[in-house]
Design a protein that fits this description.
The protein is 35% helix and 31% strand. Helix 3 runs antiparallel to helix 4. It has a five-stranded mixed beta sheet with strand order 1-2-5-4-3. The chain is elongated. It has a domain of 104 residues. The N and C termini lie far apart (36 Å). The chain is an alpha+beta fold. The relative contact order is 0.19. The longest helix is centred in the middle third of the chain and has 19 residues.
Length: 153
């Protein structure tokens, strides 16, 4: 199984998200690898589950694409929630969300997209085989994301 390097929390999380994704989010803390280093959600106009998914997607995209050399980058990155647990510690509420992450090498994904665009509608193009090959090229990993949720949400 492929391992991806955990992101360091040397910088202000809010500023990193602003610089990388041009998003202004009321968050602080860390990247949510453990309860101790949870992403703190201070407030949100978005539904909580939607914001958590967005933050998990951002972390995953940085891990699997933005911080890797071009030839090692992944594309077609998708997250699907598998489970969620809520834990209270004193006055703090935590969501532990497990996501199934699927992706494929960016170069491979680009080749599949081009093949699809060129082949669709042509006589020799086997769409079933095309999607079978895409499925074989896809990696899957499960990751936990910890969020500290402020009481106002």
């Amino acid at each position: 199984m492929l391992k991806f390097e955990q992101l360091k929390s040397d910088n202000d999380l809010k500023e990193v998200i602003k610089a990388a994704f041009d998003a202004d989010l009321a968050v602080s803390g860390s990247w949510g690898y453990t309860q101790e280093f949870a992403t703190i959600i201070e407030s949100s106009e978005l539904p909580l589950k939607q914001l958590e998914h967005m933050l998990a997607s951002m972390r995953t995209y940085i891990e699997m694409n933005m911080t890797l050399p071009e030839a090692e980058r992944f594309g077609s990155i998708n997250l699907n929630e598998l489970s969620r647990e809520q834990t209270r510690v004193g006055n703090l509420m935590y969501d532990k969300v497990t996501y199934e992450i699927t992706a494929m090498k960016e170069e491979t994904y680009t080749a599949f997209i081009n093949e699809y665009k060129e082949g669709l509608g042509s006589e020799g193009f086997n769409i079933t085989e095309h999607f079978n090959q895409r499925k074989k090229a896809t990696i899957t990993r499960n990751e936990d994301y910890w969020f500290e949720v402020h009481q106002t949400l």
